[in-house]
Amino acid sequence: MLGNTMLLAATLMILHAAFSMYEHLSHLKALGRPSDALPPDGPHLAFEALAALALASAGAVLRTPALREASWRSEMRHRCVRPRVRVSLSGLRT
User: Fold this and answer.
1) Handedness of CA 36, 37, 42, 43 (dihedral sign)
2) pLDDT tens digits for range 7-27
């Protein structure tokens, strides 16, 4: 449950940062100014995006199930060995 909550919060944070940047660029375009400069809260938006990335990573780690054992013995428990059947077409007539 905590992992899902962290992923939801990270999604909302990244959407907020993207919308804020879009809003700033739209405002600059309406004023006819170049869009090369970051908004006044640009460092805040960059920090918010990086925090969202860290939060999403932690949420994904918490959300994943426990890893299973990956060894030859554990893999062969679920598999069976079947003999190969060879089919010869040399005896067939056309």
Assistant:
1) positive
2) 999 999 999 999 988 888 888
